[in-house]
Design brief:
680 residues, alpha+beta, Helix Hairpins, D-amino Acid Aminotransferase, Chain A, domain 1, OB fold (Dihydrolipoamide Acetyltransferase, E2P), 5-stranded mixed β-sheet, 5-stranded antiparallel β-sheet, 26 strands, globular, binds ligand D41
């Protein structure tokens, strides 16, 4: 078929534009357009290609997935062997490494390139005349497996190198890995489908790369960073490793931003300390750093011994997964009565922190992992998340252990424990009769984002509840000074401060007050919606189920919780007493059509945003405020009515849900971009 020139040109332009956007998004991590724009162009190209199949080229952005599943992987011989890395653990190991290299090179000082050691899988990418022609795993270093189809689905790996004068052969080596957010999303999706749960991001990356059906790999959020080159023909490489990484970045290949050049073993050790300190903030796992003699001429002179170069060494970081034993499984009672099994562990260092307990989440999780008292378990601590039990070493299980079962009575108040069909959590039915729930309710009430009562911390709340001085949040405001003075570590000064803080907290806002009440499923965002919708408390308290469900965010379950809460005499009484002691707020205007009249200045009017995960450059509050100032509604849960989800680091189920529903997703950079554009 003859394709008109204009169509050819249009396709060419679309491909170039899409490649540029993809590069900005995945490699530079700095998108310049919203996802929707990318999707629009992508669909245009897809349509053109459907109309004129001869337009399709293997490096087209539409052709990342498409190959038919393989029966098995074929073997690939590496043109240049993929070496392995020696390990160092101590300062002396590094000093020895440097001394040996200096002796062999007869130099007084060596320049090193220091970089992260990603905990993933090494692969080799072969580009011929700029086209990705083959991707292979490291295998035994001389032979690996052909995983080209799968690697083509990794969005940050260019199918075509950028720039002019592309070399006839350029092999790039690097690590394929999965970041924490992707790992959590994947496991959440796996769990929902009843599929295998991965123990850590490395296993998830390995499992994803080894899928025979590339369509499966395409759904796994894999990433890639270069760390070197293999066979190179027809192009002069720079003289150093560090310059080579920059050279690769110029071709549009992803290179980590965390590499540095240092000039001494002390420089290496400083780099190590710096990376160790920021490890928990990295969005992916690393298991060490790597030091490489920077000058290629020196690397050549040093050569290698039994497949490990004398010019490079991995300096291992403390492991993030270690073995320990379960001393006991205790049950904690949360604010809403949820029972959480927690493993008490033989204290152990993980990633430089001593860990003594790990959450087991719920009964289903304990059952799935079959964690028992006495078991030897692998625990993992990565990022700044709570340590988790990853798996049990069954071969080390002592005789006479028993499966763990949550109690059917609350360990704190002996009330009945109920597990609602279809819900993962079991709950103590004791409500505020249960001291554990009362303590947590008080803590929540006093917390910064709720009533913000400074100085009323966990220890103090323990005391007032255990002494029977405070039964409800209202009692906090009527407890006489002498009673506070009688408590441990409460001198005159602290008591005066606390009383002042209690007094200050009385002037609040309706959203804060509603949030502070601790109604189930009513987080800050929902509290704001409720306040906005009803404008005052009596209207909300009177609302029936149907009226409640008219509120953005509020579905039948949440409505039920709110309704039931205000129906309880005890809750009504507490609210009454709180108002009697002087808690006030200025009433907000209820939502009316009037407010949307200002829509001209509010480009996001009528749009609902959900914020999830951790943002780095601004707080979620700040983000919400700025979105709201632009007219957006910021909601706490994702539904079909959501227009956009802003997913920070470690975004979890909300992001997965947004993906499932096909809702637009912005990352932090995208949000910042959007705000910058709209705020003018
Ligand atoms: O990030 C890594 N995992 C990494 C692995 C890295 N940054 N550099 C590496 N450099 C090498 C040499 C020095 C042998 C070229 C490596 C690896 N090797 C490696 N990965 C798996 C086996 C060897």
């Amino acid at each position: 078929m003859n394709i008109p020139d204009s169509i050819q040109q249009q396709a060419q332009q679309l491909r170039q534009q899409l490649e540029q956007y993809q590069y900005e998004y995945y490699v530079l991590d700095a998108p310049t357009v919203p996802d929707s724009e990318y999707d629009r162009l992508f669909q245009q190209l897809q349509q053109l290609e459907a109309e004129y199949p001869d337009l399709i080229r293997p490096d087209s952005p539409t052709q990342r997935v498409g190959a038919t599943p393989l029966a098995a992987f074929t073997e690939v011989a590496h043109a240049v062997p993929m070496l392995s890395l020696g390990n160092a653990f101590t300062t002396e190991d590094i000093q020895d490494f440097d001394r040996r290299a200096r002796e062999r090179l007869e130099q007084r000082q060596i320049e090193y390139a220091a970089e992260l050691k990603l905990d993933g899988l090494a692969i080799n990418l072969r580009y011929e005349k700029g086209q990705l022609v083959q991707a292979a795993t490291r295998g035994d270093g001389s032979h690996g497996e052909d995983v080209t189809q799968n690697v083509r689905t990794i969005q940050s790996i260019p199918l075509k190198l950028r720039g002019e004068n592309l070399p006839p052969v350029l092999e790039v080596r690097g690590e394929v890995f999965m970041n924490h957010a992707g790992f959590r999303q994947l496991n959440a999706a796996q769990e929902a489908k009843g599929d295998r749960i991965f123990a850590n991001p490395r296993n998830a990356a390995a499992g994803s790369l080894r899928q025979l059906d590339a369509k499966m790999t395409a759904r796994r959020p894999l990433q890639f960073f270069c760390y070197g080159v293999g066979e190179v023909q027809g192009v002069e490489l720079p003289d150093t490793h560090s310059a080579t990484l920059a050279f690769l970045a110029n071709f549009g290949l992803p290179v980590s931003r965390h590499s540095e050049v240092v000039t001494s073993p002390q420089g290496c050790l400083n780099y190590y300390q710096k990376i160790l300190a920021m490890r928990d903030q990295l969005p992916f796992d690393i298991d060490g750093v790597v030091y490489k003699v920077n000058r290629f001429a020196d690397q050549q002179t040093l050569g290698f011994v039994s497949r490990a170069p004398r010019w490079a060494i991995a300096h291992k970081l403390p492991p993030q997964e270690v073995l320990t034993t379960v001393l006991a499984i205790e049950v904690q009672v949360g604010r809403t009565g949820a029972l959480t099994p927690v493993a008490r562990l033989k204290p152990v260092e993980v990633g430089g922190v001593t860990v003594t307990n790990a959450t087991l989440h719920n009964q289903a999780e304990v059952t799935r992992k079959d964690v028992r008292v006495g078991d030897t378990v692998t625990i993992r601590r990565a990022g700044d998340v709570i340590p988790e039990v990853v798996s049990v070493m069954l071969e080390r299980r002592p005789p006479d252990t028993e499966p763990f079962q949550l109690p059917d009575r609350c360990p704190v108040c002996d009330s009945e424990v109920v597990r609602v069909e279809g819900e993962a959590v079991a709950r103590c039915e004791g409500s505020l009769k249960c001291p554990a729930q009362r303590k947590q309710a008080l803590q929540h009430f006093a917390s910064r984002r709720a009533m913000d009562i400074e100085g009323l911390g966990e220890k103090l709340i323990e005391q007032v509840v255990d002494h029977g001085l405070v039964n409800s949040v209202a009692d906090l405001f009527t407890l006489p000074r002498e009673q506070w003075l009688g408590l441990e570590r409460m001198g005159k000064k602290s008591v005066d401060k606390l009383l002042a803080a209690l007094n200050d907290s009385k002037q609040t806002t309706l959203p804060r007050f509603l949030y502070a009440l601790g109604i189930r499923e009513v987080g800050e965002a929902t509290a704001r919606q409720l306040a906005q919708h009803f404008g005052n408390l009596p209207a909300l308290m009177k609302a029936d189920l149907d009226t409640l469900q008219k509120v953005q965010d509020v579905g039948p379950i949440v409505a039920q919780h709110i309704h039931a809460f205000f129906l309880q005499a005890r809750n009504q009484e507490v609210i009454q007493r709180l108002q009697t002691v002087g808690i006030t707020w200025t009433e907000a205007e209820p939502n009316s059509e009037q407010s949307s009249a200002e829509a001209g200045a509010q480009p996001l009017a009528g749009k609902t945003f959900v914020l999830t995960g951790t943002l780095n450059g601004l707080t979620r509050d700040q983000a919400a405020e700025r979105l709201q100032a632009l007219g957006a509604t910021v909601s706490g849960s994702v539904s079909k009515k959501t227009h956009c989800v802003v997913a920070g680091e470690k975004a979890g189920s909300k992001l997965t849900k947004a993906q499932d529903l096909g809702i637009d997703i912005l990352d932090e950079a995208g949000l910042v971009q959007l705000l910058a554009e709209l705020e003018g």
